Amino acid sequence: MYGRVLFASQEQKMNLTSYGWTDFLGAQFNDYSSPGLKPARVVRSDRGEFQLIGADGIFRAQTAGILDSSGEPAPIATGDWVAVDRSQDTAVIRAILPRKSAMTRRRAGAAERAQVVAANVDFVLVVDGLDRGPNQRRIERGVALAYGGGATPIVILSKADLCKDREHTSMLVEEAAPFVETFFISATEGDGLEGLSAHLAPGSTSVLIGPSGVGKSTLANALSGEGHLAAGPVRAGDAKGRHTTTRSELILLPSGACMIDTPGVRELGLWLDTEAVDAAFADIEGLSETCRFGDCNHSGEPGCAVVEAVAVGELPASRLASYQKLLREAEIHEIRHDASKARLSKNRERNFAKICRAEQKRKNR
């Protein structure tokens, strides 16, 4: 049910449904509906300014006093569902609804803390250009990042018109991303767009990840049918391009799906976790179940089924090396993140103790 959320008409109700509003979100929103708040989704964020889509269309809003679970100011991300107070001239975001998924990166500053750059994502489109690709290691990392964000990865091989051997390319991508749906796309010629559009269900949300120059903005423009996002040239020498996306934006596609393109989602800045790495390398995880030792690191231990698979040619040595590299990165992040959380908790405890001592002194006067 939609709870107490009021829509002026069925058409307005469908306006939010097109952007991913569901019965489940309606039930969650019951906690916010009594003070007269309205649901909306963040469709654009740019340096602290936000545009939202509500039941009556797009409007601007500002934030006020939203804290995360650690008591710190909670940044709002494109894709967030929020509760908005529109009783005054300026709309104010009062709360963020629980996220079902999120792409995060390290927040600026010394503390190892997460910053959400795209929220409530269903699919992560891992884009790699075939003018220089496919880059198996980059695809592996992108798939792991998708699983880490709680989304389903889809590999997009852009600039497919430049690919001379699709069969060989498909084999390389299958090694890097087994069990992951893959699409060859030429946005400039329209090749493959129809199949991808059909795969992105109405009401779903996708986000594009990949380095500059692989054609993310060109792909978004081709799927949307309009020039929403600037697409920059690529240097001929190294196939690198400029970051042409300067703001984070959610686009409603003609297919009924939503897509987020954001400068915050660049794979090197996003966080991994060990479970996501294991999910991206499900073939290695499957082999490890037959290792002699349950805590096998696949680094030469006796009875290691993974190393044996490399020795007989069933598993590329480069894939095992990539798995071990990403797993180390994820473990280091988790250690630092846990240490950072411990420091934040200790600081809050110290501050609380100071307040208690000050209050006791006041009473004893």
List the helices and strands and how they pair.
Layout: H1 10-18, H2 23-33, E1 38-46, E2 49-54, E3 57-63, E4 81-85, E5 91-96, E6 102-106, E7 114-119, E8 123-129, H3 136-148, E9 152-158, H4 166-176, E10 181-184, H5 193-199, E11 205-209, H6 216-224, E12 248-252, E13 258-261, H7 274-280, H8 282-288, H9 305-311, H10 317-364
Parallel strand pairs: 3-5, 8-9, 8-11, 9-10, 11-13
Antiparallel strand pairs: 1-2, 1-4, 1-12, 2-3, 4-5, 6-7, 12-13
Helix pairs in contact: 3-4, 3-7
Kindly describe this structure:
With 365 residues, the protein is an alpha/beta fold. The chain contains 10 helices and 13 strands. Strands 1-2-3-5-4 form a 5-stranded mixed beta barrel. Strand 9, helix 4 and strand 10 form a beta-alpha-beta unit. The N terminus is likely disordered.
Descriptive keywords:
10 helices, 13 strands, disordered N terminus, Ribonucleotide Reductase Protein R1, domain 1, five-stranded mixed beta barrel, OB fold (Dihydrolipoamide Acetyltransferase, E2P), two-stranded antiparallel ribbon, Rossmann fold, alpha/beta, single chain, globular, 35% helix, 365 residues, 21% strand
User: What's the CATH H-level homologous superfamily of the largest domain?
Assistant: P-loop containing nucleotide triphosphate hydrolases
What multimeric state do the chains show? single chain
On the 0 to 100 scale, the average pLDDT is 80
Tell me which CATH architecture of the largest domain applies here: 3-Layer(aba) Sandwich
CATH fold naming of the largest domain: Rossmann fold
What's the gyration radius in Å? 23 Å
